[in-house]
From TrEMBL:
It comes from the Bacteria. One of its GO terms (molecular function) is IMP cyclohydrolase activity. The keyword Transferase applies. It holds the Pfam family AICARFT_IMPCHas. GO terms for biological process: purine nucleotide biosynthetic process. It comes from Escherichia coli. This is Bifunctional phosphoribosylaminoimidazolecarboxamide formyltransferase/IMP cyclohydrolase. Its EC number is 2.1.2.3. SUPFAM superfamilies: Cytidine deaminase-like (SSF53927). Keywords: Hydrolase, Transferase. It is an enzyme of class 2 (transferase). The keyword Hydrolase applies.
Length: 69
């Protein structure tokens, strides 16, 4: 909520209207929670992590129960 407020203030501070900024915002603030570190694949020297949205109600691949198998 605070990030959205300050994000909307940036164009106003620089004298731009929302229309002048274009169809997409200049800044995009997204908050995710790290669910797990990922195992290496083709590039074993690179690290990776899997992130999910915090309060998602609908089912998705990210929130499913892997079960067994």
């Amino acid at each position: 909520m605070i990030a959205n407020y300050f994000g909307s203030m940036v164009p106003a501070y620089h004298g731009e209207s929302k229309e002048a900024a274009g169809r997409f915002p200049r800044t995009l603030n997204l908050n995710f929670i790290k669910k797990q570190d990922m195992r290496y694949g083709e590039n074993s020297h690179q690290q990776a992590a899997f992130y999910i949205e915090e309060n998602v109600k609908e089912a998705s691949v990210a929130t499913r129960n892997p079960g067994s198998g």
